[in-house]
Specification:
The chain has a domain of 208 residues: Alpha-Beta Plaits (2-Layer Sandwich). It is 25% helix and 16% strand. Strands 3-2-5-4 form a 4-stranded antiparallel beta sheet, with no helix packed on it. A 3-stranded mixed beta sheet has the order 10-1-11, with helices on one face. Strands 6-7 form a two-stranded antiparallel sheet. Strand 2 and strand 3 form a beta hairpin.
Length: 315
């Protein structure tokens, strides 16, 4: 499958003078002059959700503001004449990966809050780029999974049960979920119009202008990481009827910022970085601790690795 450079990462053409730079740069990424880039905080999450985020979400919100500032300069021109963000990013020089530490995750739901705010994901738990599950494993090998409201409000306080249906509980943990950014991705294989594609740095994106909303990719994903944007006001880029999913906050990582969920996590349970950089957070964790991937038997080769999951949960 061929790789494509996303529209917002293609270097703009030469500019004849600083004055016309704004419309020229905007047109390169499919925006009209003065139009904001998609995926930034703009009040699309309810006041209740924001209040629940509390002080933990403040760093995430502040980081999102930095993203807007950086890309606003890219679209509208930097008065100081700084080089556009996209021109500095080399997608071929990275291989992004992700690590989730289930031994550390406390199930607070701050990652879900941050993701929905940053990317304009509908508040309905049916539509999520990331969500948190609780996995309870009993002595008979049964794994019970629940995720109330996608985990956005956290879970009921208190210790997990010691017995479930007469069987002792041997393990209980929170398992954050997101797109696996598979190297052998079923979603890209089944898309009939090539709207789902992989970037040179290994992140799978969706071309919203090309997507026809057929839902093939939603069905093909073995991790349940995709959904079709509903026809409502609160949608990513305001484009109902197209597929949507986690992108590792591609607009942030290409600007040198961490994904919103990583920045919001109060215990450092979510980490991202370059798999080819031995000093990156993901490489350090994977070198020091055993990790596994979900549904390894499918051969999809996920780039999201988990610390602390037992075989019974993974399969």
């Amino acid at each position: 499958m061929s790789e494509r450079t996303p529209l917002d990462q293609r270097a703009p053409g030469p500019m004849e003078s600083p004055e016309p730079a704004s419309p020229a740069l905007g047109s390169e990424i499919g925006l009209e002059a003065g139009e904001r880039p998609p995926g930034f905080l703009d009040g699309r999450v309810s006041r209740r959700t924001v209040l629940q985020a509390g002080v933990v979400a403040v760093p995430c919100l502040a980081g999102a503001g930095l993203v807007f500032t950086a890309l606003d300069r890219f679209v509208n021109g930097d008065p100081a004449g700084a080089e556009p963000v996209a021109a500095r990013y080399d997608a071929s020089g990275h291989r992004w990966g992700f690590v989730v530490d289930t031994d550390s995750c406390v199930g607070c739901g701050m990652c879900v809050v941050a993701c929905k705010a940053e990317n304009g994901v509908p508040e309905d738990p049916e539509y999520s780029r990331t969500w948190v599950e609780r996995h309870i494993t009993t002595a008979d090998g049964t794994v019970r999974v629940d995720s109330p409201e996608g985990g956005i409000d956290g879970f009921e306080p208190g210790d997990p049960p010691t017995m479930v249906d007469g069987s002792p509980v041997v393990d209980a943990r929170f398992v954050p979920r997101l797109c696996m950014q598979c190297e052998n991705s079923p979603c890209t294989a089944v898309c009939p119009v090539g709207a789902t594609y992989r970037t040179p740095d290994g992140v799978i994106l969706i071309d919203e202008e090309r997507c026809i909303g057929c839902g093939y990719c939603v069905v093909a994903c073995p991790y349940g990481a995709r959904y079709i944007v509903p026809a409502a006001e609160d949608t990513p880029r305001g484009v109902p009827g197209v597929a949507d999913k986690c992108t590792f906050c591609y607009h942030r990582i290409t600007a040198g910022l961490p994904p919103a969920c990583v920045e919001a996590c109060p215990v450092g349970a979510r980490r991202y970085g370059d798999l080819d950089d031995p000093t990156s957070p993901v490489s350090v964790v994977m070198a020091e601790q055993p990790t596994t991937v979900l549904k390894e038997e499918l051969g999809t080769k996920p780039r999201v690795h988990y610390v602390g999951l037992e075989a019974e949960v993974v399969s």
